[in-house]
């Protein structure tokens, strides 16, 4: 259906429609209105009840063991690589190794997205998608140790 005709100054001023017609017609004819891209859909997923950000904060401060290790470890890439299952997922971000297993159901992007970095260094992907997030605060209670080079044989 074509847009309504744009009134001319002569017939618009006599009917008192000039100012409202200008606004309406300028927004209809604006090149920006037809060339703007629609907003990108959010990649957030619906989390189960009890798995929101405040629930994660409460779990972190509960005193429950989220690390899964007794002491901080020196973790070579070969050991990190073995922790790539949903029931046992570690990742390295900025040289620190985190047990992300307890965080999986709390991740706003879903478990599948977080599993992309399980068993490997996720620094690059984390930087690209979460540059504003303070990982040291978000996962501090999940710190397993530090990523180190493979030992020489």
Structure notes:
This protein is an alpha/beta fold. It has 2 domains: 9-38, no CATH class; 53-147, Flavocytochrome B2, Chain A, domain 1 (Roll). Helix content is 35%, strand content 14%. The protein has helices at 9-15, 18-29, 31-35, 53-60, 77-81, 111-115, 123-129, 135-138; strands at 73-75, 84-85, 88-93, 96-99, 120-121, 143-147. Strands 1, 2, 3, 4, 5 and 6 form a 6-stranded mixed sheet that branches.
Provide the fold topology.
Blueprint lengths: L8 H7 L2 H12 L1 H5 L17 H8 L12 E3 L1 H5 L2 E2 L2 E6 L2 E4 L11 H5 L4 E2 L1 H7 L5 H4 L4 E5 L6
Parallel strand pairs: 1-6, 3-5
Antiparallel strand pairs: 2-3, 3-4, 4-6
CATH structural fold name of the largest domain: Flavocytochrome B2, Chain A, domain 1
Radius of gyration: 27 Å
- Main structural class: alpha/beta
Please trace the helix and strand order, writing H or E for each element.
Answer: HHHHEHEEEHEHHE
N/C terminus separation: 75 Å
Judging from the principal axes of the Cα atoms, what is the shape? elongated
Largest sheet: 6 strands, mixed
Number of strands: 6
**Superfamily at the CATH H level of the largest domain?**
Cytochrome b5-like heme/steroid binding domain
Please state the second-level CATH architecture of the largest domain: Roll
Level-1 CATH class name of the largest domain:
Alpha Beta
Q: Work out the strand percent.
A: 5-15%
Number of individual domains: 2
- The oligomeric status of these chains comes to single chain
What portion of residues is helical? Answer: 25-40%
What value does the average pLDDT take? 84
Low-confidence stretches: 17-27
Tally of helical segments: 8
């Amino acid at each position: 259906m074509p847009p309504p005709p744009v009134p001319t100054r002569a017939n618009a001023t006599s009917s008192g429609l000039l100012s409202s017609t200008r606004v309406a017609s300028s927004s209809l004819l604006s090149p920006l209105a037809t060339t703007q891209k629609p907003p990108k859909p959010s990649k957030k997923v619906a989390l189960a009840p009890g798995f929101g950000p405040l629930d994660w904060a409460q779990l972190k401060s509960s005193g429950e063991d989220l690390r899964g290790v007794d002491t901080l470890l020196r973790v070579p890439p070969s050991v990190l690589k073995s922790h790539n299952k949903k029931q046992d997922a570690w990742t390295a971000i900025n040289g620190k190794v985190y047990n992300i297993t307890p965080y999986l159901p709390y991740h706003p992007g879903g478990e599948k997205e977080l599993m992309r970095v399980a068993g490997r260094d996720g620094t690059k992907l984390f930087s690209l998608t979460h540059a504003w997030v303070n990982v040291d605060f978000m996962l501090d209670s999940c710190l397993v140790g530090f990523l180190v080079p493979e030992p020489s044989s």
